[in-house]
Write a structure and sequence with these properties.
Blueprint lengths: L6 H10 L26 E5 L2 E4 L4 E4 L14 H13 L9 H12 L5 E5 L2 H16 L3 E5 L6 H4 L10 H4 L2 E3 L5 H10 L4 E6 L11 H11 L3 E5 L11 H6 L5 E4 L10 E5 L1 H4 L15 H17 L1 H22 L6 E6 L2 E6 L8 H13 L2 E2 L3 E3 L6 H23 L2 H8 L13
Parallel strand pairs: 3-13, 5-6, 5-7, 7-8, 8-9
Antiparallel strand pairs: 1-2, 2-3, 4-10, 9-10, 11-12, 12-14
Helix pairs in contact: 2-11, 3-11, 7-8, 11-12, 12-14, 13-14, 14-15
The structure holds pyridoxal-5'-phosphate.
Length: about 425
Amino acid sequence: MKYPSFKKSVELLAQVRGIIPGAAQTFSKGPTQFSAGSAPNFIVSGKGCRLTDLDGNELIDYSSSLGAVTLGYAYPAVDRAVAAQMKRGMSLTLPSPLEYELGMVLKDIYPCAEMVRYGKNGSDATSGAVRAARAITGREVVACCGYHGWQDWYIATTTRDRGIPGGVKALTKTFDYNDPASLERVFEENNGNVACVIMEATGVVRPEKNFLKEVKRITHKHGALLIFDEVVTGFRLALGGAQEFFGVVPDMACIGKGMGNGMPISAVVGKKRFMKVFDEIFFSFTFGGEALSLAASLATISEMKRHDVPGHMARMGQTLMDGYNALAKKHGLEDVTKCVGYPCRNIVSLKDETGQESLLVKTFFQQEAVARGVLFCGYHNYTLSHKVRDILATLSAYDGALAELKDALGKGGSREIKKRLNGELLQPVFRKL
Ligand SMILES: Cc1ncc(COP(=O)(O)O)c(C=O)c1O
């Protein structure tokens, strides 16, 4: 196998490490997730579902910019809308009428959406929704389940909790997915002080025994608000997200990734009686209604409707997921690797010979997939630009990578894999304590 060169990436990374802590603005885009030496660390351009890296390698992409790109890179209809708006100005002194136009579109799509406020990142939306819930209820505790962004109240629950005051940390409680009793416990232990339940309605695991309805019932029984964090599920599971897909309507929802095909825009949507509090709380920032992103979002959603993008993602994803698991079986690796999740978004688990999820094996598999033209990152976010031929090319690359993995595991397991690595070992974003 002739491995591609990442010489320029490695050289620039060494320089960048001297000036940018972490060498990226987002952990999931940094060298802890893309092995320096055997995968690219810098991308210069993207078109459709393909990226070109600093060394000139072209790769099929499955991060899709962490799920922010839903149509494809440099998608003409969105680029045209952005270019047209650019001529009229990006950030204007007063709100653009596009705020209303997009609001009406979102109102039509999301079952809970009667009013809307915009942000730039998903974290803006989740922060705003939680502040609103605290203001409405006069309570302080937040119950959460899933990932919700970089703000204090959520990150306090993770292993990267340095810099967060203990008082803030004490106000966020987690509960377990598919375990209504764990949510009941949070309410019992925080005696009338839980403002809201914020959760990803689903991640990889599906809700069982009417879990979402049960969460809604428990939350309302205790006088708290239910917020669905639809930053990932929105525009992907269905156009109207998990609330449409599962038919469970929350009080408020947070959307973000995907609504602008990569342009920075997010939103809190929700019932009028709750959203009205945004008039009183402080949710206000310079770029909140930046017009390029509003224009991009209108164009993106229009294309999504026209092409049934969630349906397309599900078809492509089902083919890849089934194909991957068939390949794992063909190579006798069913106990080592599996592709699981929803058709529209799935993840690949990779274990070592002891049956433990292994970053060493993941690093090796990434190296081998990248060498065959696929920027493997551990999960698959599909876009409208991923076509059947791309899925087939990906499966062919995975076939070769799995053959290498089988060979290395057979010839010495993890020890052998370590010897075969060309780059740095991947690291978790959140370390196990
Ligand atoms: C479910 C969920 N909520 C919130 C966020 C935070 O979004 P952002 O990183 O845009 O602030 C993310 C980001 O990955 C997410 O996956």
